[in-house]
Amino acid sequence: MRKKILISSLIVLVIVAIGISVLVFRSVSDKKLLNTPEDELYMQMSELDSKQLINIINRIENRYPTMWGREKLLPLYTALIDKANDFSEDQLIELISEKKTLSGIDSAFVEIYTINGFDASKLLVLLDDSNIADEVKEYIASRSDFSAEELVEIFRMYDSRISVTVIKRLAAAAPDKLAKLVEESISWSHNAVSDEKNRAICLAIAGYYEECTSKEEAYVVREQYAPVLKQFYEQSNSDLVQDEAIYALGRICDNEWFAWIIENNSINKYTKISVIERNANMLKAMVESAKSEDEISSVIEAMKIHPILDIGDSFQHAIANGTLPESDELNSLIAFIQKEGMKAVDKYEK
């Protein structure tokens, strides 16, 4: 009897030891796999069928859920996406919904769904699924072939980072929808929605302005919504919302709003730099039309924060042409710009 118990105990120990050895081997093998050169790894993984690939990705994602693991898995995701024809619409929805899968492979399944041209509207229900990571929901919102109307409804229904993704898509594909959303959104209490949705509203205002087709229309939008952005900045307790509000205001501002931003001591230097860069052409025009330093005090202050060579040239030309009186302060500023300045960035200029 004792002999049988001893033999049984030894068998159990052997089985446990084998199990531990397999786990250690897999761990070592996975690390070796992830350190394989990308092209070579992709070729190896392309030889496997989709089921084998899914098993390997799931195992490694669960073992290395950090960004390091995700980056190393890119050749495997690519190999899986290349097998898009292996999957049906229902299979993919079921795979995305599984609890055991993580965001990396789920995003690959979403990409396959999109590549295959399956019905995007069927993915809408997944945005309500608590088993699906927010990152995957953002990917669904950014990659799926939703109609403009569906994107608007997503914005209305979901109070999360998805809102920012949807606004960016609408600004690019259906800017006409932004006006209605802006009108609707600014009536909400800032405290009643998330910081992400407030950020999205700021983006929507800037996107709406940039679609204006005339100076008159741009003026009306600025007059109506610049005070709203100022209110967002002053009433929010979130640094992200405050930065987005000033970022948006910098995209729609005129001389007066630019001066308000530059002269506001509570706005950080780096946000001001972004606004200065975005409005370089406006600042040049301000210098060229100025008759005194008082008229361009905000530009002078801006150049102390972030000197731009093109605007330094405008100061020199204005003085040489006699439109702007020469002074020691301006000469000192021009010298500073020439020494420390950089070329203007013309992006986002209206």
Secondary structure: elements and pairs:
Layout: H1 2-34, H2 38-46, H3 50-63, H4 67-72, H5 74-81, H6 89-97, H7 103-115, H8 134-143, H9 148-157, H10 162-173, H11 176-185, H12 195-210, H13 215-235, H14 239-252, H15 255-263, H16 269-278, H17 280-289, H18 297-305, H19 309-320, H20 328-340
Helix pairs in contact: 2-5, 3-5, 5-7, 6-7, 7-8, 8-10, 9-10, 10-12, 11-12, 12-13, 12-14, 13-14, 14-16, 15-18, 17-19, 19-20
Summary tags:
single chain; 350 residues; mainly alpha; 20 helices; 71% helix; 0% strand; disordered N terminus
What is the percentage of strand-forming residues?
under 5%
- Rg, nearest Å: 29 Å
Poorly predicted parts: 2-28
Helix content: over 70%
The number of helical segments is: 20
Instruction: Give the N-to-C terminal Cα separation.
Output: 91 Å
Average pLDDT figure: 85
- The helix/strand class is mainly alpha
Shape: elongated
What's the short version?
The protein has 350 residues and is mainly α. The protein has helices at 2-34, 38-46, 50-63, 67-72, 74-81, 89-97, 103-115, 134-143, 148-157, 162-173, 176-185, 195-210, 215-235, 239-252, 255-263, 269-278, 280-289, 297-305, 309-320, 328-340. The longest helix has 33 residues, at 2-34.
Describe this structure in words.
This protein is 71% helix and 0% strand. It is mainly α. Helix 10 runs parallel beside helix 12. The longest helix has 33 residues. The N terminus is likely disordered.
